[in-house]
Amino acid sequence: MVDRSNAFGWAANDESGVLSPFHFSRRENGENDVTVKILFCGVCHSDLHTIKNHWGISRYPIVPGHEIVGIATKVGKNVTKIKEGDRVGVGVIIGSCESCESCNQDLENYCPEVVFTYNSRSSDGTRNQGGYSDVIVVDHRFVLSIPDGLPSDAGAPLLCAGITVYSPMKYYGMTEESGKHLGVNGLGGLGHIAVKIGKAFGLRVTVISRSSEKEREAIDRLGADSFLVTTDSQKMKDATGTMDFIIDTVSAEHALLPLFGLLKVSGKLVALGLPEKSLELPMFPLVLGRKMVGGSQIGGMKETQEMLEFCAKHNIVADIELIKMSDINSAMDRLAKSDVRYRFVIDVANSLVTDSSAENLKEHVDHGVSITSRF
């Protein structure tokens, strides 16, 4: 029987997706484990899909959250890379078989037995709950070191959104030659980080959007080279065949045909969003233009640590709105309407802990925290 300790967070109990206070238990720290006192947790669009069961795989109650930054408060005897007091991160996955082909290639995220941070079960059959909570216990092989200089609050979304855009850039050859032209479809939580990382890799970046609403901030603040509005037929025509790559971050239903037209011969479109309904895949532009469509999801632990180091080196963080845990339901409503610039992050430490505990953690929480937003 596994020893348990008490934990507290906010959970969804049904498909309404409404989150409310929830007491549950975590396993005691084992010899291979790290116990993490959670400081911040990003709010991913996957959290919204999961609490509302949009994908039909949700098992309630669910404590969401897989963009976790905190402090290691206990480490098992077999743990050598992390010590108590270290600033650490926990992302989308917390386990894998560690013996399959994918695991042997440092691609644990593609392991057929991958264990997700929440809405999953551990090997002992117990349910895993995520980072909208005060503490989490994780196998040390799935705990990441947060580099010095990377802020805890605005760095948290990198643990999902950051690696989700970094990994395909590496795999699909976008980083092999500077000056290539990348289109980023959708300027949200994923898209705005894709712009920043793409520019750091030396790419020429064009944001693709349905409206011109975000044009100035895309260019002036995020650093995009240009902005293309899909409803402007003349500009879409002028941009035909100009892009080497497109990263499609849109998770809503949308047409792929206009995007294919923007690609050069042999261009690549990489889908990252997960719409509720399948998209139509027109074959003629693919065949006649030798174009490719691929997909990608996060990355393995080695690549995720590499991404964090890269972002720290290039001063890349998410643009965030810092919220209290009690604000999470209104934040979810806004997220469903794409009304966020560009990632909500929950100030977990100051939302859930007692006054005395907050004082003890104060020295760890001052890594670039802002009251309402961070750009």
Automatic annotation (TrEMBL):
GO terms for molecular function: oxidoreductase activity, acting on the CH-OH group of donors, NAD or NADP as acceptor; zinc ion binding. Its cofactor is Zn(2+). Gene3D superfamilies: Medium-chain alcohol dehydrogenases, catalytic domain, NAD(P)-binding Rossmann-like Domain. Signal peptide: none annotated. GO terms for biological process: lignin biosynthetic process. CDD domains: CAD1 (cd05283). Belongs to the zinc-containing alcohol dehydrogenase family. Homodimer. This is Enoyl reductase (ER) domain-containing protein. It comes from Arabidopsis arenosa (Sand rock-cress).
